[in-house]
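User: Sequence recovery, please. Input:
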């Protein structure tokens, strides 16, 4: 529930239970702002924390509430209900607001407020009323601050203090806004509208007016007063009421934090959380508990490469937490944590030192997980970011039972799972057919190509297959669709003297299927314009990294090497295209769907990463796979991001990086 909904239910409950009371909202209390103040036979403060709010500012808010109110409540939605008790003193009450009403979870106890603070809530005229009841001469020409100090400090007897407190309550119950010529902004038992959202800084103007001599108040004074009140209201709202981060959930939290394995450096964890943990690792307390500034920038993150950098690691050397408890003098905790963020292997000069650092690393990991999960706001943040990426993922099921294949041979019968796979190819932009060897992936691809051609979804289908099975593919195709018009391209029919003719046939012909061998496919170049466009996109991403990465010690040369490598690759590709002197390039073939059989042969693509010595990650890749990646990208650019089907019985061979390579081909937007 949001603040407005909780506030409305709370005020209705207060009106029903305290019919003689008076309710003030967003009441200025010196340097603080109270959400709801109830005046009955005492002063009661209500601090609201909606499901979207965090507890970040609550400790300081509690400090101010304790000084002003006899009793205090924390009012929360159901999300904060379980954890509210741990966030407030024992004398605070707890109210949990649900859609169907109020749950008084804990009653409050008297909080021993400061009489001086309560007196400051009153106007100067109201303070003089209290002086009158005490038979003390009025202090018309004294300031409000003087009267407050007089009442709070000179009336030492308990009896007099109780009378003054009763006077505060009485004046707030009977405050008359008509004397200032404005409407009553408070809520009584008869009032039904609990809205308090007003652009005018009414409360601040009233509190200021109560101390002025209005007899000589000119228009300039009014303008000056309004500007002062507006500035005061904005400052108070920003400092004390603005939540650290508004809790607006964009996804359902189907995966709870208990099922999430949190490790430093995972891409779905917000930089702010890592920044706050580094502060905690250094100081031993939370960043928002710092009495000084809270905008520490202790870590930088480059999302394109996933690189983390802690800029001032050596600055904190000498602190026991950094050099001994969680690190060693030669390699402090920040160096260790940075290596954890980048998932780098730690090796030192001696085995003994390496073992000691690894023990410190495990200790930091244990501290990180304990720190992360002990705070409800962080748990919510982690759940939110994790579920944004993984919460909506589920296995899609496609039903191809109703598909018909008019031109298919009656002797061929597809299994239900094969029809479902055809339906998947029709519906998805890009598809990976990762069935076991012998499951009939060839049948699925041929049936899907013919069905999409019949439906007008894919006019030109190309099948890229290993050299030794081109003839086998042609035979299977003719068996399934005897009337199909095919173009089969193998090394023997793709000689230099006839290559241009074959490419023109692909461009101008109306074929049900174009079956082409690996080696022939590699000989078809992309145009210089197409390659340059792709390479410019890559270089623009690289240039976005430059500013941050050049701040990291020792990484400037590495970055320059990567940039130079991309330029060199682009130059080699363009030069190879020029040497072919081919008029028809791949991007001019207008392929609608590209089917690649035995796609595991193209997994060795270049993967940008700061990780080293990890199985399956090749920073350079192979020329063959780079060519395939660029042609796949070309097909997708010409077909609204789709048009590629990979088939392999071994999508994962050596490492999880194989899956990442397949994603780079088929889900480029999701991992970009």
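Assistant: Recovered sequence (672 residues):
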């Amino acid at each position: 529930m949001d603040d407005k909904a909780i506030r409305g239910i709370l005020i209705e409950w207060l009106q029903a239970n305290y019919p003689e009371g008076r309710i003030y909202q967003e009441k200025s209390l010196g340097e603080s702002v109270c959400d709801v103040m109830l005046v009955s036979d005492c002063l009661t403060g209500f601090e609201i924390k909606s499901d979207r709010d965090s507890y970040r500012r609550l400790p300081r808010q509690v400090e101010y509430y304790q000084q002003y109110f006899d009793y205090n409540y924390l009012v929360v939605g159901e999300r904060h209900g379980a954890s509210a008790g741990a966030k407030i003193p024992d004398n605070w009450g707890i109210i949990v607001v649900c859609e169907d009403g109020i749950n008084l979870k804990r009653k409050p106890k008297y909080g021993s407020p400061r009489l001086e603070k309560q007196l400051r809530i009153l106007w100067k005229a109201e303070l003089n009323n209290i002086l009158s009841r005490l038979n003390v001469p009025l202090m018309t020409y004294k300031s409000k601050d003087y009267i407050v100090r007089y009442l709070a400090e000179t009336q030492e007897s308990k009896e007099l203090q109780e009378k003054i407190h009763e006077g505060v309550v009485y004046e707030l119950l009977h405050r008359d806004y008509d004397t200032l010529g404005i409407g009553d902004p408070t809520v009584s038992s008869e009032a039904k509208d609990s809205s308090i959202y007003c652009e005018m800084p009414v409360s601040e103007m009233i509190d200021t007016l109560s101390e002025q001599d209005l007899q000589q108040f000119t228009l300039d004074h009014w303008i000056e007063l309004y500007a002062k009140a507006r500035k005061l209201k904005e400052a108070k709202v920003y400092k004390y009421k603005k939540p650290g981060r508004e809790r607006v959930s964009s996804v359902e939290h189907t995966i709870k934090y208990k099922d999430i394995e949190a490790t430093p450096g995972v891409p779905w964890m917000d930089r702010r959380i890592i920044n706050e943990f580094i502060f905690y690792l250094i100081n031993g307390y939370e960043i928002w508990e710092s009495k000084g500034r809270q905008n520490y920038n202790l870590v930088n993150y480059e999302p394109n490469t996933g690189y983390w950098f802690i800029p001032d690691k050596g600055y904190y050397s000498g602190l026991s937490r950094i050099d001994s408890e969680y690190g060693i003098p030669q390699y402090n905790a920040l160096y260790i944590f940075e290596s954890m963020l980048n998932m780098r292997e730690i090796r030192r000069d001696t085995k003994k030192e390496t073992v000691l650092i690894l023990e410190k690393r495990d200790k930091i990991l244990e501290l990180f997980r304990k720190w992360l999960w002990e705070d409800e706001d962080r748990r919510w943040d982690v759940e939110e970011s994790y579920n944004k990426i993984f919460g909506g993922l589920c296995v899609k099921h496609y039903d191809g039972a109703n598909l018909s294949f008019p031109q298919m041979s009656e002797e061929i019968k597809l299994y239900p799972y094969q029809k479902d796979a055809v339906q998947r190819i029709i519906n998805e932009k890009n598809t990976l057919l990762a069935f076991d060897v012998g499951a009939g992936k060839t049948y699925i691809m041929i049936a899907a190509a013919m069905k999409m051609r019949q439906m007008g979804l894919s006019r030109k289908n190309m099948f890229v297959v290993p050299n030794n099975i081109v003839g086998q593919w042609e035979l299977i195709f003719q068996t399934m669709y005897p009337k199909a018009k095919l173009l089969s391209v193998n090394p023997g029919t793709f000689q230099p003297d006839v290559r241009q003719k074959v490419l023109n046939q692909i461009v101008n012909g109306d074929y049900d299927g174009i079956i082409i061998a690996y080696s022939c496919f590699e000989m078809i170049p992309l145009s210089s314009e197409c390659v340059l466009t792709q390479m410019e996109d890559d270089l623009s991403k690289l240039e976005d990294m430059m500013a941050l990465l050049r701040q990291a010690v020792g990484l400037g040369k590495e970055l320059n090497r990567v940039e130079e490598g991309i330029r060199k690759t682009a130059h080699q590709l363009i030069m190879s295209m020029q040497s072919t002197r081919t008029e028809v390039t791949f991007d001019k073939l207008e392929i609608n769907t590209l089917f690649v059989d035995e796609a595991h042969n193209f997994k060795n693509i270049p993967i940008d990463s700061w990780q080293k010595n990890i199985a399956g990650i090749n920073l350079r890749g192979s020329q063959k796979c780079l060519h395939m990646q660029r042609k796949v990208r070309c097909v997708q650019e010409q077909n609204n991001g789709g048009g590629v089907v990979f088939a392999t019985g071994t999508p994962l061979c050596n490492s999880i990086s194989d899956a990442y390579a397949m994603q780079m081909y088929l889900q480029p937007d999701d991992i970009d």
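The chain has 23 helices and 14 strands.
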